[in-house]
């Protein structure tokens, strides 16, 4: 009979009445018949799949509302599952006859139930042969003593799930077994309902209610479409390989899954079979059905120099969107820096407005003889790109594009260590499972290993009690994962959300790979890394949705000597710091996007360490980076822009936000102090450094001071770009130890360039301080100002005041309208070998002013350049900065993201400073007065 003899629609109606075996036979007739049968996927095949009592929805339990790619394929996998538990089993004897009987289709089937061959399960198990099937009819089967499975057997419940209940404790003493469509409840004498110590068990479509599944290596387990509820759990001890696929864990009293102990060396026959199944779940490339997209859309940045290989998806952000999102002005509100503190005197042409901001009420002076300084060492960060767009450092608007991180496959190609971890399959493999509404998710301890792929963790209270202390309340962690004692974890494409404390908690030398996860809306940190844990954290994806966001505390917290490689993550909209590092935490934080937080972007608290390199930190309501002075971080090549408070703030211990501990009141805080003293110091000494370093960063368009320092420790600030902030470029309010500001470019800030308060120790060397709205340098402390270019600032070039003890040497200064150098009050020190240029002939103030009666400050060998504007000479500027050219002289060849560690950009200082006359007229167009 030809297919074309009837319309296709009619054929589909006819074929919809065929049972499964007949559909299979029709597929073998010819290609046309096969295509016709396959076209029934959403009708007859779907009906057969959902109508099978042994089958559940292919996307159960996390996404049953989504259609599978193929209902026929799903039904095929269910059918194959009935056979795979036997296909690789060993022979009980060497007889070939037994192999024949084992494989024959008419294997023995035994029925258990009222009116059947056996009324009890124990009775049937006493007579079954190898690989027989035992069918249990609806009812409740209770055994008063432990039941042993001595030969391979298949136990199947008849009817719908829930109609067959077992109140038993089974111990498997055979190579393999299969249990399907059964409900397990604990008997009166034990909570363990099934255990094996060397064989393989396959569980299909079973429910565990208040019961425990226990697998001990070299025993193995494959659980598919099973439900663990009412405090049920799976406990795996020393397993080589087990697979929990599409299972539902809910209502747990402790941990839903516990993996304890290293994998044993001995392996059973099923390990090869399970390894093959594990490879069928893609490790790279997300299908789009395994994770839900985040609630909010990231309006992030790339701008400037991008990490190699990054693709960027453009998504424009309006000012209104940012206002609605954060409740603040998108261009960053000004912030009160310190009561009674200011940048010093207001320069002429400025006055206080009612809202406390400075506004220019007069036309600014136009510098007729402005010294060009646009070709300084960091100017390439401010120049328009080839397409005419502005780079991130000079763009007044928040970053207008959304980052699209690398795929996991691209990341693995760049990192052999991560590639090795991603390929590992030892221990327990959990994939497509749902953990919900309970105390715990997964617990690993004592060298346990696990791989988590495509799971959903939602609404958990805490993961598990801390095994070391055996007290549940002492480890009130509210986490989805607890790792201890050199554990290895691989987490790929999971969603971790709405936990009452941290999402993922790693401690005590835990290692592994955490990538492509969606971690959000947790009560504490999304990831909490402590006590020497050293994971690789790469949240990457080709589509928006795998990020760390909307946490009620920090996005990632690294404490108690925690380490880790944290790269290419998108961390946004967290209530506390996007990344919080303290108490010996020493991570590598590289190339992350940390944005739209409701507090600070990055927090480095007490005794925090780490390499913070190449990150984009922007649009946070607090500071971009907040650092405690007792910490030793290294910040290299970061873009810290458009934050509502300081760009980078260094505070004394006990000030700022140190009170925000990343724990609940009932957390582990009380257990920290005793642990810290005994911790192995090697975890916190990965890199030997003695001074915090801030180098090659861009701090732009922040709502207050670009770099704010109130510290009791030394600080090195090298080769940074600090521009267009709404406060001073750099403000040092307290610095009992030496703060070194070397080869930085500080320009176009709304207030002054650099302000140093009294009693501070500061060295300014080789900086370019250009076109700030206040004084170029306001200095009331002790130290030296050496070989800086201070040009075009609206106030004084350099103002030294108070009881300062200072050296002002070999600087080149051109004010817009005030004094070049002003020495006010009883200043001690020397002012010599400076070059002072007049910027406008209308400026009547002297280039170097010193209060009368000051005999403790020595001035000598300073050069003064005044301009007399002849009619024939009003065109080109009469001088330039050369030998050396405009400072800073240092620049990073690769942009701001330098990969060298520790990075030391070249600082080239010249002892000889001179100015040449360039004029279209004659040498008489400029008059030099030398004192």
From TrEMBL:
The keyword Repeat applies. Pfam families: Beta_helix, F-box-like, NosD. Residues 286-316, 338-363, 384-405 are annotated as: Disordered. Keywords: Repeat. One of its GO terms (biological process) is regulation of apoptotic process. Residues 1-48 form the F-box domain. The keyword Repeat applies. It comes from the Eukaryota. Residues 286-311 have a biased composition (Polar residues). This is F-box protein 10. The lineage of its organism: Eukaryota, Metazoa, Chordata, Craniata, Vertebrata.
């Amino acid at each position: 009979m030809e297919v074309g003899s009837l319309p296709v629609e009619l054929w589909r109606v006819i074929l919809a009445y065929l049972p499964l075996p007949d559909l299979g036979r029709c597929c073998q007739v010819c290609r046309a018949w096969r295509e016709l049968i396959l076209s029934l996927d959403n009708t007859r095949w779907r009906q057969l799949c959902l109508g099978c009592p042994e089958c559940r929805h292919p996307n159960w339990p996390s996404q049953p509302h989504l259609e599978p790619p193929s209902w026929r394929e799903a039904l095929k996998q269910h059918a194959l599952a009935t056979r795979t538990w036997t296909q690789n089993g060993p022979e009980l004897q060497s007889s070939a006859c037994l192999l024949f009987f084992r494989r024959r289709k008419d294997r023995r089937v035994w029925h258990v139930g009222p009116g059947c061959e056996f009324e009890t399960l124990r009775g049937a198990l006493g007579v079954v042969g190898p690989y027989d099937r035992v069918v249990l009819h609806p009812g409740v089967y209770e055994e008063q003593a432990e039941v042993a499975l001595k030969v391979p057997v298949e136990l199947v419940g008849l009817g719908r799930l829930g109609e067959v209940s077992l109140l038993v404790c089974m111990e498997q003493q055979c190579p393999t077994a299969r249990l399907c469509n059964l409900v397990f409840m604990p008997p009166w004498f034990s909570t363990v309902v099934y255990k094996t110590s060397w064989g393989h068990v396959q569980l299909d479509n079973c429910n565990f209610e208040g019961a425990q599944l226990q697998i001990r290596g070299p025993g193995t387990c494959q659980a598919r479409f099973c439900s663990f509820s009412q405090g049920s759990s799976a406990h795996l001890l020393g397993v080589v390989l087990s697979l929990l696929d599409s299972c539902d864990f809910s209502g747990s009293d402790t941990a839903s899954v516990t993996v304890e102990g290293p994998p044993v060396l001995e392996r059973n026959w099923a390990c090869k079979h399970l390894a093959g199944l594990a490879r069928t779940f893609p490790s790279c490339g997300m299908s789009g059905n395994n994770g839900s997209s985040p609630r909010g859309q990231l309006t992030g940045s790339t701008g400037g120099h991008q990490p190699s290989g990054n693709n960027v998806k453009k998504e424009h952000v309006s000012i209104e969107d940012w206002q609605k999102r954060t409740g603040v002005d998108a261009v960053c509100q000004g912030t009160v820096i310190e009561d009674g503190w200011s940048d010093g005197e207001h320069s002429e042409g400025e006055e206080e407005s009612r809202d406390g901001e400075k506004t220019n009420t007069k036309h600014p002076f136009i510098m007729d003889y402005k010294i060009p300084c646009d070709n300084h060492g960091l100017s390439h960060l401010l120049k328009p790109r080839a397409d005419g767009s502005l780079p991130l450092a000079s763009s007044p608007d928040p970053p207008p594009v959304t980052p699209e991180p690398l795929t996991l496959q691209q990341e693995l190609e760049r990192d052999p260590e991560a590639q090795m971890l991603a390929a590992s399959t030892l221990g327990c493999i959990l994939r497509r499972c749902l953990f919900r509404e309970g105390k715990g998710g997964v617990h690993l301890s004592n060298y346990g290993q696990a791989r988590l792929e495509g799971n959903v963790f939602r609404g958990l209270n805490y993961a598990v009690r801390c095994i070391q202390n055996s007290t549940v309340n002492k480890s009130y962690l509210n986490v989805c994962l607890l790792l201890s004692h050199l554990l290895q974890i691989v987490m790929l494409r999971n969603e971790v959300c709405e936990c009452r404390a941290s999402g993922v908690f790693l401690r005590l030398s835990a290692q592994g790979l955490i990538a492509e996860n969606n971690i959000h809306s947790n009560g504490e940190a999304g990831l909490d890394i402590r006590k020497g844990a050293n994971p690789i954290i790469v949240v990457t994806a080709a589509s928006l949705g795998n990020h760390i966001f909307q946490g009620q505390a920090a996005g990632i917290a690294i404490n108690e000597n925690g380490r880790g490689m944290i790269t290419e993550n998108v961390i946004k909209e967290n209530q506390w710091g996007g990344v919080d590092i303290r108490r010996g935490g020493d991570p590598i934080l590289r190339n992350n996007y940390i944005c739209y937080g409701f507090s600070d972007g990055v927090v480095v608290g007490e005794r925090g360490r780490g390499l913070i390199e190449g990150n984009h930190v922007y649009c946070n309501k607090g500071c971009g980076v907040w650092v405690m002075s007792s910490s030793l971080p290294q910040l290299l090549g970061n873009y810290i822009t458009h934050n509502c408070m300081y760009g980078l703030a260094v505070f004394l211990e006990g000030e700022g936000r140190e009170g925000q501990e990343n724990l609940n009141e009932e957390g582990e805080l009380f257990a920290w102090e005793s642990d810290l003293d005994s911790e192995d110091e090697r975890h916190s000494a990965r890199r030997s450094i003695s001074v915090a370093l801030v180098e090659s960063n861009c701090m732009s368009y922040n709502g207050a001071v670009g770099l704010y320092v109130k510290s009791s420790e030394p600080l090195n600030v090298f080769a940074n770009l600090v521009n267009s902030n709404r406060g001073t470029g750099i403000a040092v309010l307290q610095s009992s130890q030496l703060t070194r500001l070397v080869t930085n470019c500080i320009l176009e800030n709304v207030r002054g360039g650099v302000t140093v308060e009294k009693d501070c120790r500061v060295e300014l060397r080789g900086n370019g301080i250009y076109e700030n709205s206040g004084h170029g340098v306001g200095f009331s402390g002790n130290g030296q100002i050496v070989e800086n270019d201070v040009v075009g600032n609206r106030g004084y070039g350099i103002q030294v005041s108070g009881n300062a003890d200072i050296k002002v040497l070999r600087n080149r200064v051109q004010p817009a309208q005030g004094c070049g150098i002003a020495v006010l009050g009883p200043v001690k020190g020397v002012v010599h070998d400076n070059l002072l240029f007049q910027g406008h002939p209308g400026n009547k103030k002297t280039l170097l002013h010193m209060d009368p009666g000051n005999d403790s400050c020595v001035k000598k060998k300073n050069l003064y350049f005044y301009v007399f504007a002849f009619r024939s000479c009003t065109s080109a500027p009469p001088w330039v900065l050369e030998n050396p050219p405009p400072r800073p002289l240092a620049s990073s060849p690769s942009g701001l993201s330098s990969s060298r560690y520790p990075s030391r950009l070249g600082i080239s200082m010249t002892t000889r400073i001179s100015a040449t006359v360039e004029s279209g007229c004659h040498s008489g167009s400029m008059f030099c007065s030398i004192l």
